[in-house]
Every structure is written in C-alpha cells, then in structure tokens.
Amino acid sequence: MIGIVLLDTRFPRLPGDIGNPATFPFPVIYEKVKRAVPSRVINDRDPSLLLPFIKAAKTLERKGARAITTSCGFLALWQKEMAAAVNVPLFTSSLVQIPWAYELMGRRGRIGVLTADRDSMTGDHLEGVGAEGIPAVIHGMKPESDFHRIYVGNHSDLDLSRVEREVAMEVSTLLAWHPDISALVLECTNMAVFRRSVREAVNIPVFDILTLIHYIHSSLK
C-alpha cells in the first residue's frame, strides 16, 4: 500500500486527484492532518504543522504503508525531516523529480516548474528536495485564477472545464516564454487531474505526483 498524508481540504477530489483512491490501480490509505488547510502550508509555511505531518506519516507506516507521500508539493520544505521520521520511502513532493529530470534530459536546457502559487515557492523548497542549483524556470497559476481560488483558497465550487483551460494556458505560456525548457514538473498534486490537457499542450516530458507514485510503487516488493 501507498500511504498518503492529506491536507484538510474541501475542494472536489476528482479521478486523477491524489485524494481519490480510484486514481490508483493499487491500494492506497489516507491520513488527514486536521486544520492543515492549503493556505497554512503554502502561504504561511506554518512550522507548527511539521509535527502533525510527521505524526500522520508514522500512523500510515504503522497501518502498513510501504511508501508514503503527501497531497501538497509545498511540503518539499520538510522533505528531510519527514523522511527521517519513518522507516519506509517518503517523498513529500513531485519536486524531487527536478534533479532526475535534468539528468534524464542530458543536462540540456532548463526544467520548467508549474506551481500553484509562484509568490510562495522559494529556494527553500528546492533545497528541501536537493534541487538547488538545477537550472529551472518557476511559473505559477495566476492569483486571480479559478485554479488558485479553488486549490489554494480551498473552495468547493469547481468549474472543471474552466480550470482545465487555465492550467493548459499557463503551461503553453511557460513554454512560449522559455523555449529552452526540456522537461516540465507539475508541483501541485491537483494538477494531475488535468495531465491529459497538459500533455496535449506540450511536446516535452511531463512529471507530476502520479508519475512519481507509480515509479516508487514499482520499486516495492
């Protein structure tokens, strides 16, 4: 089983979302961290949440999880602390794929990163997953977008087609502005819901939380 530490959210968990068990062809188990709403993790970087996240990871390990991940890429900030607290593989964020993607692409060009909130993404998050020093371009969803309102603001009234268009548009804009990008990493776990539209919008490898989960799962006995 893969264990998933969930934020305390109310937006829909559609197929393709890490919070929907139907997304996976193998068993997953969940542990929610109460009151860990997205803004406390993304905007506030609330340090008081670290221990509850570690507690949730330990609970998943006790329940039999063979590997553990989280439902928010911004938890890259605490990758080292959370991984050290358990005895199974723990990967907080899809951002751990940045150095790997750069090596896979022969160290050519830069790695594009699409994040839910550009203002909150810092070098500390990249350092947390060993991605500091990797040539990268970080691009965020617009603060006034429906995507930001739903997934960062934690609202429930999702207009799926509208948000899907927003994500595809930002990916296309990122590649148009930076044609030297050789691979793309989607920071936000919820972006995996829109992975088909993203892949149709670009002609480079795309890595998200699901590519990482499937890879780690394949490594387990």
How does this model look, in words?
The protein is an alpha/beta fold. The protein has 9 helices and 8 strands. It has helices spanning 38-42, 50-62, 79-84, 97-104, 123-128, 146-152, 160-177, 195-201, 209-219; strands spanning 2-6, 28-32, 67-70, 90-91, 110-115, 136-140, 181-186, 206-207. The strands form 2 sheets. A 4-stranded parallel beta sheet has the order 2-1-3-4, sandwiched between helices. Strands 6-5-7-8 form a 4-stranded parallel beta sheet, sandwiched between helices. Helix 5 (123-128) links the parallel strand 5 (110-115) and strand 6. Helix 7 runs parallel beside helix 8 (195-201). The protein is globular and about 45 Å long. The N and C termini lie close together (10 Å).
